[in-house]
Amino acid sequence: MDNSSNSLFASLGLPDFDLTNQTSYIQFVRNGIPGNVVKRAVNIFGNRDLFVRILGTTSSNLSRYYRVKKMNRVDSEEMLDTIRLYEQAIRVFGDMDKVKEWINTPLPVFSGEAPEALFDTFEGRNWVSQILRKIEYGEFS
User: Which residues contact 82 (CB under 8 A, 6 or more apart)?
Assistant: First the structure.
């Protein structure tokens, strides 16, 4: 892993592990991640509404997640998949400011939606990841 992802994991309070290793990822999801990762993610990514949508809760109930010792499998996977997507975007764009700008900009490739608007479904996150790979490998800008 590169330094940007290491610092991202550390700042989220997560142990360093290879998100591309499917076995490790699945085991981490099954074990559940601590709820305080949600609070840290809201602070780092600066988008409370995104995590409200991802976790299928209300803004007033989001803070309940902050105190959960281990989130359930579904919520853990939603969070880790989103973190993985941010890590990929950091690798592509180089820093969080550029990532935030790209993620919040409506783009024709996403039918005029901002990439962030697609994060609340697996298929949406997969689509964003595919586009990030194309940008990373110069298939289009």
Answer: 41, 50, 54, 119, 125
